[in-house]
Specification:
By secondary structure, this protein is an alpha/beta fold. It has 3 helices and 10 strands, in the order E-E-E-E-H-E-E-E-H-E-E-E-H. The chain has helices at residues 45-53, 94-105, 163-180, and strands at residues 4-6, 14-17, 21-28, 37-39, 59-62, 65-78, 82-89, 110-122, 128-141, 151-153. It comes from Sagittula marina. InterPro entries: Peptidase_S78_dom (IPR054613), Prohead_protease (IPR006433). GO terms for molecular function: peptidase activity.
């Protein structure tokens, strides 16, 4: 199975705090995304437990690029709403400093997860119900697929009309897939 990237919906903004700290929801349970996927409560539980038992962590990447880690997720957990993440952008990494500046300026405002599907089913609407996922990373991204999958500076409201950006994000994702074969 291939690694998948999902630009997930969450209702509250992830917030940049104290310059380099970020927190928010990277995924919400029971919400259908534009790709027709719905993450079930508990889908990340085994993966998170396995990572912890092996002394490994979910990676914080820039734009899903494994060559560009930009920080550390200090806390990744499931709660009643979804997958909550809390971490630090690294100021000792050039791209981490850039990411903090871009978030603060409002130029970057997306979160996206990278995972592998272990168990899923289809419902009568044709949606894929994701029951178990192997979570690899949560990335900061330029164009989230879903309008509310955002990072913002504390106190700033992101723009609500994102249809044009969503279409652009889908086109860019299609081009990336064509170029990389992933």
């Amino acid at each position: 199975m291939d690694l998948e990237h999902k630009f997930c919906r969450f209702d509250q903004d992830a917030v940049l705090v104290e310059g380099m700290k970020i927190e928010g929801y990277a995924s919400l349970f029971g919400k259908c995304d534009q790709g027709g996927d719905v993450v079930s409560k508990g889908a990340y539980a085994r993966s998170l437990k396995r990572l912890m038992s092996e002394g490994r962590a979910v990676k914080m990447l820039w734009q899903h690029d494994p060559a560009q880690p930009i920080g550390i997720w200090d806390e990744v957990r499931e709660d009643e709403r979804g997958l909550f993440v809390k971490g630090r952008l690294l100021d000792s990494v050039e791209k981490g400093r850039e990411a903090a500046a871009l978030i603060e300026a409002g130029a970057i405002d997306g979160l996206s997860i990278g995972y592998r599907t272990l168990k899923s089913t289809k419902n009568d609407r044709g949606h894929r119900l994701l029951a178990e996922l192997e979570l690899w990373e949560v990335s900061l991204v330029t164009f989230p697929m879903l309008p509310s999958a955002r990072v913002s500076s504390k106190g700033e409201e992101p723009p609500q009309d994102m249809d044009g950006l969503r279409e652009l994000a889908e086109a860019l994702e299609g081009m990336r897939r064509n170029l990389t074969g992933v």
